[in-house]
Structure to design on (1132 residues):
């Protein structure tokens, strides 16, 4: 939204306030300003002039003498250059759109300054010839002295106006400025409808009253399609419109001024206006000459049965003002905001009109819009003939919102002492009606604030505090009750595990999108199953929410392998399935491939997983069966189970090396091990730590090294060792596994350490020897060889 | 007696001669044995006492010899100490370590910058009495919109901002979705904050991401004022930016779940208000959308808005991380790129 300050000055005196100060005040009290465009920073020394001599010096150029404040020789390349033409001249050292115009040589001739087209002036898009001024224009006059050319335009962030339908016109801002500066305000001049009351109304019928609240129309004959007066064109140009002709320009003018979108139809075509929704899909060509497919249910303006405009969005090519139109029908209506927004989104067609209607405009403004248009038109074309009365179909007259509250509430909510009178003054300056009662005040909002903005007492607080000034509210820390904290075990545990993974094991934490990258999935031939699908994915390759953290961590590994040889990544991320999400931990380790690396990397990750389980639950998990999954090597993998205090085992994740077929996609020879742990599940187990009494007598460590056939699974081996029972055993630990020199092929040497002792006494030498013999005998019976 | 004195003199002379060129601890031990050991010269001197006649003479001789003994012992002990400390020093010299030698870590871990900044915000808000809560990323439209006073006709409900899922759920567009969930579960008074990942359907560039982090704050109690909101925000931001007094300003802002709603700006931390590219020459950085909890939000959670009120605020964690670490491209956060990630520890 662009606010021309010269235009704003029509309604509230601001020409004594610097633009920067106005912008600052608006930002702090009303809506965010994005910047100020000052035309004088980019244009200067532009004067009216008349061409008094024009000599054709080449195919393209004229050598002219022009008279402005004095005579100049100017070379012009415009085809419409001719003696007698009145136009604009920029003097040497003047500026056009930020470029300084020097005296320079064109076609071998000296040109003092330059004659200007509409586009060069930034008034319209016409670059076919010099900008033409009327015959009665005074010569040698600075453009700034008789027009609003050198305007300051404040740009407002439209997003900050979504809830303020009253601020979609310059006049709306004058109300704000009036309250902020405490000044008087003028109203725009309106046509008096009484003068045409006796004329017959124009036939208008609203059939879909859910979507059209009000329809105001009037027919005007004997109109002329001509250029708008210079200053109208300049005001429109300064607020981002392209002037076309007076009839159309005034619709934009009124919209920019009071925020009411208007539409003019060719009056000779329109017989009867019918406002109704389309029963079925249709094709319709809008006035921008684009044929559009309209959905069923869209609200249309029809001439009898023929659609002539998409209500509130854009007129049709079959009914708009032509260069030879003699008559117009003016529409100033009010439509259902959410319908307009939905349709405009559906059609992908956003216009100045739709972006206003979708904000819930004040229906009162529909009438004002029509009257303002007539007043302006009558002003510029004295000979028009209004041929209908103001036809106003208004089925649900809008009510003003009333709020009952009290001064104390307002003060209490803001947290400041402020005089009742100050509150009342602020509200009245914003054109609220304030009725004071003994203990309460009744506040009535104006219609233009009643459509959606002001409805509850909290809204009144906002009005008071913003005008009063947020900077006048002293910050105070609240005095609060002490309450028990809400526990968040998952977050706490996640933090502690992150700490371990990063600083103990040297892993790098990553973060990613929750959806798969199907391009990558194709590359690794990963098959989707029943993933949750996104209706509107950001690209066609991102349609599914991830059900596993493996693909993304593998993808990151592939990418990082371009720069690094080995690394380890982890992510705490959500996985999605069965309409639920669970927090999972994925860890991936990438190592350079060397001898036995498959086992080494697998065990490295196993150690980390064990540590995580021990920290969170106090014990290690169980690795029971190989894990079958499309990217995992089934021979180097395992499910991870956790046994709870009742001895029940639960699946909590898996660990495994990446399938060799994936490795073959990589240039580098690496071993990749991955583990995914259902973090939520393991966090649900409480770790219980209880002090155990320890013996006061010395304990003895006894180490036994024995040979184990590698074919025997380790957990089976451990289970058979566990069969050795002796009351002296305090602790059993396997602390070395060795193969290689001096160990027979197919075997590995295992060192077991028993810690033995008694709580009642120091063990005697005999007891120790007897223990040793018992265990050696046990091993013999089991068939193990002692080393 | 005279003989004794002469003997002592000679004893000393000889001793002094012996320790003159002393160069090792071994030699000192030999000297020790020679002069004060069991079969030493000193012992032979003691024999002289027996040869003396009077008790007085005996006593005097005893004293002399004892003095001599103490004298020699002291000297030997001193020498011993000198030798020992020299020897230790010698050993230390031979056994030195070059402290400039490099050390190697096989893998140097890192934490994601979001984790680091979240940790900081956690610490501050927890210290201010707020409790951390979390909500799902896959959220119902009810908690993401309706319960926050965003009806289905509201522009924020448009397809263009939200990821919709085929199972009738959405990916939450803000952590504000935790507001109603918490209000339903815990009764006021309460103070919570909800950090988490949010999703917006928009095209990705250096400053826009489809997935980013926010932290939502919510306080519901009795007699809470706008002044309280400003005070709390000022304190929070001063802690986050580790400045004793961050300058803030409030502007009107519109969010359906607060009324009144505000945009809270802080004085630009780059140019301190003079105007620069970061603050688009305004001198201010738009940082915290906030406001007083809309009575409808309380009503949705079955809390009486006449009895309780409060405020809510949102902090962009990704944005804070970008500001703190001067990260110029938001796309790094979800890239998994170790060249980026390894910088954060
Ligand atoms: Zn700055």
């Amino acid at each position: 939204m662009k606010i021309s300050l010269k235009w704003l000055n029509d309604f509230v005196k601001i020409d004594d306030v610097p633009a920067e100060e106005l912008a600052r005040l608006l930002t702090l009290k009303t809506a965010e300003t994005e910047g100020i465009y000052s035309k004088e920073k980019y244009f200067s020394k532009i004067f009216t002039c008349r061409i008094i001599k024009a000599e054709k010096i080449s195919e393209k150029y004229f050598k002219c003498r022009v008279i402005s404040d004095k005579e100049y020789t100017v070379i012009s390349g415009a085809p419409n250059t001719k003696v007698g033409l009145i136009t604009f001249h920029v003097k040497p050292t003047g500026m056009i759109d930020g470029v300084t115009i020097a005296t320079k040589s064109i076609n071998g001739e000296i040109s003092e300054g330059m004659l200007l087209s509409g586009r060069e002036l930034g008034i319209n898009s016409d670059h076919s010839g010099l900008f033409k001024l009327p015959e009665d224009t005074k010569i040698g006059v600075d453009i700034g002295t008789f027009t609003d050319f050198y305007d300051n335009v404040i740009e407002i962030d439209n997003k900050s106006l979504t809830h303020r339908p009253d601020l979609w016109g310059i006049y709306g801002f004058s109300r704000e400025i009036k309250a902020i500066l405490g000044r008087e305000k003028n109203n725009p001049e309106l046509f008096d409808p009484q003068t045409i009351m006796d004329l017959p109304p124009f036939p208008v019928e609203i059939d879909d009253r859910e979507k059209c609240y009000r329809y105001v129309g009037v027919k005007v004959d004997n109109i002329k399609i001509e250029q708008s007066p210079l200053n109208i064109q300049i005001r429109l140009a300064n607020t981002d419109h392209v002037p076309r002709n007076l009839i159309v320009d005034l619709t934009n003018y009124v919209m920019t001024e009071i925020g009411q979108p208007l539409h003019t139809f060719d009056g000779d075509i329109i017989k009867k206006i019918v406002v109704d929704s389309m029963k079925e899909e249709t094709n319709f060509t809008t006035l921008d000459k684009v044929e559009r497919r309209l959905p069923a249910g869209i609200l249309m303006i029809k001439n009898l049965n023929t659609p002539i405009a998409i209500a509130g969005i854009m007129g049709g090519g079959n009914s708009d003002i032509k260069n030879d139109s003699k008559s117009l029908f003016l529409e100033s209506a009010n439509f259902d905001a959410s319908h307009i927004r939905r349709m405009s989104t559906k059609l992908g067609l956003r216009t100045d009109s739709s972006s206003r209607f979708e904000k819930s405009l004040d229906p009162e403004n529909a009438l004002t819009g029509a009257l303002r248009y007539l007043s302006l038109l009558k002003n510029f074309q004295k000979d028009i003939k209004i041929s209908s009365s103001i036809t106003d179909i208004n089925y649900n007259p809008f009510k003003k919102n009333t709020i009952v509250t009290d001064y104390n509430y307002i003060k209490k909510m803001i947290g400041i002492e402020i005089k009742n009178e100050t509150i009342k003054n602020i509200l009245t300056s914003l054109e609220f009606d304030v009725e004071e009662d003994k203990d309460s005040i009744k506040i009535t909002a104006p219609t233009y604030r009643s459509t959606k903005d002001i409805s509850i007492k909290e809204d009144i607080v906002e009005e008071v505090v913003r005008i009063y000034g947020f900077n006048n509210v002293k910050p105070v820390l609240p005095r609060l009750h002490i309450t028990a904290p809400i526990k968040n075990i998952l977050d706490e545990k996640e933090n502690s595990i992150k700490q371990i993974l990063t600083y103990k094991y040297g892993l790098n934490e990553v973060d990613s999108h929750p959806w798969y990258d199907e391009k990558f999935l194709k590359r690794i031939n990963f098959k989707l199953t029943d993933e949750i699908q996104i209706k509107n994915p950001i690209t066609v390759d991102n349609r599914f929410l991830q059900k596993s953290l493996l693909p993304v961590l593998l993808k990151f590994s592939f990418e990082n392998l371009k720069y690094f040889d080995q690394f380890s990544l982890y992510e705490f991320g959500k996985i999605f399935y069965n309409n639920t999400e669970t927090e999972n931990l994925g860890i991936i380790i990438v190592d350079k491939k060397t001898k036995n690396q498959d086992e080494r990397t697998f065990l490295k990750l196993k150690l980390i997983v064990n540590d995580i389980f021990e920290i969170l639950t106090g014990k290690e998990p169980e690795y029971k069966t190989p894990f079958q999954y499309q990217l995992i090597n089934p021979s180097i993998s395992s499910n991870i189970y956790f046994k709870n205090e009742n001895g029940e085992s639960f699946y909590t994740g898996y660990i495994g090396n990446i399938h060799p077929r994936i490795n073959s996609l990589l240039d580098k020879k690496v071993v990749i091990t991955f583990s995914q742990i259902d973090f939520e599940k393991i966090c649900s187990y409480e770790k219980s730590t209880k002090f155990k009494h320890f013996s006061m007598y010395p304990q003895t460590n006894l180490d036994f090294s024995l040979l184990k056939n590698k074919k025997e699974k380790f957990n089976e081996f451990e289970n058979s060792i566990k069969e050795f029972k002796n009351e002296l055993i305090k602790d059993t630990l396997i602390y070395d596994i060795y193969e290689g020199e001096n160990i027979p092929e197919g075997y590995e040497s295992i060192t077991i350490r028993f810690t033995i002792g008694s709580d009642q006494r120091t063990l005697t030498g005999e007891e120790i020897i007897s223990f040793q013999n018992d265990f050696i005998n046990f091993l013999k019976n089991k068939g193990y060889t002692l080393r | 007696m005279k003989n004794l004195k002469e003997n002592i003199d000679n004893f000393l002379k000889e001793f002094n001669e012996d320790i003159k060129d002393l160069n090792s601890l071994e030699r000192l031990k030999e000297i020790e044995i020679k002069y004060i050991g069991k079969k030493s010269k000193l012992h032979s001197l003691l024999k002289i006492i027996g040869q003396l006649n009077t008790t007085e003479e005996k006593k005097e001789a005893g004293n002399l010899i004892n003095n001599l003994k103490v004298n020699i012992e002291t000297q030997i002990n001193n020498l011993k100490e000198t030798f020992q400390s020299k020897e230790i020093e010698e050993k230390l010299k031979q056994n030195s370590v070059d402290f400039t030698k490099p050390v190697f870590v096989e893998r140097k871990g890192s934490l994601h910058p979001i984790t680091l900044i979240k940790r900081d915000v956690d610490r501050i808000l927890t210290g201010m009495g707020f409790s951390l809560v979390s909500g799902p990323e896959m959220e119902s439209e009810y908690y993401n919109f309706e319960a926050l006073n965003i009806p289905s006709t509201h522009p924020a409900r448009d397809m263009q901002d939200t990821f919709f899922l085929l199972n009738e759920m959405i990916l939450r567009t803000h952590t504000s979705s935790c507001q109603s969930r918490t209000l339903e579960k815990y009764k006021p008074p309460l103070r919570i904050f909800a950090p988490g990942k949010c999703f917006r359907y928009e095209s990705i560039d250096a400053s826009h991401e489809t997935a980013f982090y926010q932290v939502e704050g919510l306080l519901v109690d009795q007699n809470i004022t706008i002044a309280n909101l400003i005070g709390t925000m000022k304190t929070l931001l001063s802690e986050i930016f580790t400045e004793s007094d961050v300058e803030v300003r409030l502007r009107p802002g519109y969010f359906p779940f607060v009324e009144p709603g505000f945009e809270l700006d802080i004085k630009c931390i780059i140019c301190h208000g003079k105007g620069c590219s970061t603050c688009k020459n305004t001198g201010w950085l738009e940082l915290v959308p906030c406001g007083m909890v809309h009575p409808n939000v309380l009503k949705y959670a079955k809390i009486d808005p006449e009895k309780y009120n409060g405020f809510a605020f949102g902090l962009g964690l990704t944005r804070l991380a970008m500001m703190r670490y001067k990260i110029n491209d938001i796309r790094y956060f979800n890239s998994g790129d170790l060249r980026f990630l390894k910088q954060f520890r």
In short: Residues 2-94 of chain B form one domain. The pocket of zinc ion is lined by residues B 268, 270-271, 275-276, 278-279, 283 (CB under 6 Å). The first strand of chain B starts at residue 131 and ends at 132.
